[in-house]
Design a protein that fits this description.
By secondary structure, the protein is mainly α. It has 18 helices and 12 strands. The strands form 5 sheets. It has a 3-stranded parallel β-sheet with strand order 1-2-3. It has a 3-stranded antiparallel β-sheet with strand order 4-5-8. A two-stranded antiparallel ribbon has the order 6-7. β9, α6 and β10 form a beta-alpha-beta unit. The structure holds one RNA strand of 78 nucleotides.
Length: 475
RNA sequence: GUCCCCAUCGUCUAGCCCGGCCUAGGACAUCGCCCUUUCACGGCGGUAACGGGGGUUCAAAUCCCCCUGGGGACACCA
């Protein structure tokens, strides 16, 4: 598709003003997939020119998130604040050409005019009053504005949206350099994308309106245009732009809630892109199959349920050893002392894989195998550890004591015998035992649980459970 | 207020570009059944959509126009 001479170079350019947003991740992912598909380069650029809001901490969060998801970059992170002279040089070029000019309007003045326009329901727009200012350079701090062509049209050929037309009369003169010499977004991107030889600008479609202005800057600078691809927004359930009030929107939260990176990647890839009816994709398949041909142009509602389903899918299929590693911190989170009885993990994890949708759930289910004192779920206790079950449990303990071996199959035999003799169903016995042994109503198969726990701990817990049963004075 | 984008089941989407194979397919969720003398997993089946109106055409989810609805942008934020 793309010849070797025009090697694909794309970039993800977040502004470090907060956490790494799920929408940002999707943009990063599409960039990354496109780069990897074309064996091109993926570059990370930090757009930190908003000095009041950018933080080091945020940069760190972004890098961590990218690493967690395996979105590795080939160059960077490049920081815009490290290259101020680059923007200044470019601004000077335009100033010299007469394609830009100094503007001495103060932010306060501009703000007041804008507010007034909005109040009068008029289009807020810079009126160009400094545009034709002649004479000596201003003696007070001045911003540099771009002299946007006021006639004709600018056409954006977009890989996702198609051909989009804008009247230049619609555009006003944007500020390129603030009065302190720091570039604004629209100027910074153009300079950097040009200098960094970016071939495809893939970003959120909230930037589509900025594109004609940027195209004019490319023209003025004499730089070739990259290809553009504007991805539709990710929406919340109420169809407004996905934000914090819709729930978790930061990658960190998904990590902390026990999601697997491959689940998030898979989910986000399918949000706005498809490959026929396929739902589950490995990273390699994604790289192989990704193309803008199949990127959808309409916005998509974020569906946490489906993400959860994918996560459970990947947990079901996951490699035990890897899951064991990933689970570790979550076990600690459940109060299991670090590095404890790690030898049980190879048995515990497979037993829990089909009943855990997240690593948090898995850790919750696993905790009872590692702790001395289990946490008893109160409703479960009330429901299943009842006086009428006491004799059955006592009988069971008796039999287990004399069981030849403490294996799952032997357990089954013991249970069978009790059931036959007492004429009860397994469900009658299994749930109370489950609660006694794990403190919960959901656990691996009950025989399996006993085998993993072993004879001593199993019997101990059963006895303890009997002690918890209220005495049967009413009967 | 101006400009831009978008419009298939509740949700993600296939189909649309190159009209007929669409009595519109898949997935998540939901409902029901089955499997399991345990909790899950799993299997099977059901409910559910082309926003409205005009064209064009023998034929429109598919092409054109309008309306409506939703989203976004209009900063010395990005």
């Amino acid at each position: 598709m793309t010849s070797a001479s025009e090697k694909v170079r794309v970039r993800f350019a977040p502004s470090p003003t907060g956490y790494l947003h799920i929408g940002g991740v999707r943009t990063a992912l599409f960039n990354w997939l496109f780069a990897r598909h074309h064996k091109g380069q993926f570059i990370l650029r930090i757009e930190d020119t908003d000095r009041s809001r950018s933080t080091e901490e945020s940069i760190q969060t972004i890098l961590d998130g990218m690493r967690w998801l395996g979105l590795d970059w080939d160059e960077g992170p490049v920081r815009q604040m490290d290259r101020l002279n680059l923007y200044k040089e470019h601004a000077d070029r335009l100033l010299k050409k007469g394609a830009a000019y100094f503007c001495t309007c103060t932010p306060e003045e501009l703000d007041a005019r804008r507010k007034e326009a909005q109040a009068k329901k008029r289009t807020p727009r810079y009126d160009g009053r400094c545009r034709d200012h002649k004479g000596p350079l201003p003696d007070r701090p001045a911003a540099v504005r771009f002299k946007t062509p006021q006639t004709g049209q600018t056409i954006v050929e977009d890989l996702v949206k198609g051909r989009v037309q804008f009247d230049n009369a619609q555009l006003d003169d944007l500020i390129m350099l603030r009065s302190d010499g720091v570039p604004t977004y629209n100027f910074g991107v153009v300079v950097d994308d040009s200098v960094m030889a970016i071939t495809h600008v893939i970003r959120g479609d909230d930037h589509l309106n900025n594109t004609p202005r940027q195209i004019q800057i490319y023209h003025a600078l004499g730089y070739p245009l990259p290809k553009f691809a504007h991805l539709s927004m990710i929406l919340g359930p109420d169809k407004s732009r996905l934000s914090k009030r819709h729930g978790a929107t930061s990658v960190t939260e998904y990590h902390d809630q026990g999601y697997l990176p491959e689940a998030l990647i898979n989910y986000l890839a399918r949000l706005g892109w498809s490959h026929g009816d396929q739902e589950v994709f490995s990273r390699e398949e994604l790289i192989e199959k990704f193309s803008f041909e199949n990127v959808v142009s309409s916005p998509a509602v974020f569906n946490p349920e489906k993400l959860l389903w994918l996560n459970s899918h990947y947990i079901h299929e996951g490699d035990t050893g890897r899951l064991a590693d990933l689970l570790q911190p979550f076990l600690v989170g459940e109060g299991v002392a670090e590095g404890r009885d790690a030898s049980l993990l190879p048995k515990v994890i497979p037993a829990l894989q089909t009943r855990s949708r997240t690593l948090v759930e898995m850790a919750q289910g696993a905790a009872c195998f590692f702790k001395d004192a289990i946490e008893m779920d109160a409703p479960a206790q009330a429901k299943f550890l009842t006086p009428e079950i006491r004799p059955l449990l006592m009988e069971l303990i008796e039999r287990l004591n004399t069981a030849s071996a403490f294996t799952a199959s032997e357990m089954e035999t013991v249970f069978k015998n009790v059931m036959d003799e007492k004429g009860i169903k397994l469900s009658k016995l299994a749930q109370p035992v489950r609660v006694a042994l794990t403190g919960r109503t959901v656990s691996p198969g009950i025989y399996e649980v006993m085998e993993i726990l072993g004879k001593d701990r199993s019997l101990q817990r059963l006895k303890k459970a009997i002690d918890l049963i209220p005495s049967d004075i009413t009967k």
